[in-house]
Amino acid sequence: MMIASATEEQALVAREVDRNLMGIRNLSEQVLLGARHTQTAGLDLAQMAGALHQTVARFKV
User: Superkingdom, according to UniProt (predicted)?
Assistant: First the structure.
């Protein structure tokens, strides 16, 4: 009886660990997607800053 109970408990813990690992995987994918969006936004901002710098450089004081 104790062996069956321990086996059931181990199976339950294994399922919980698997569920937690899947959650970590899903969150990691979301973080990666967010990082890619941040990178793209940063590159866009750098291009806009360059264009703005060129525009401002045309003005003479």
Answer: Bacteria
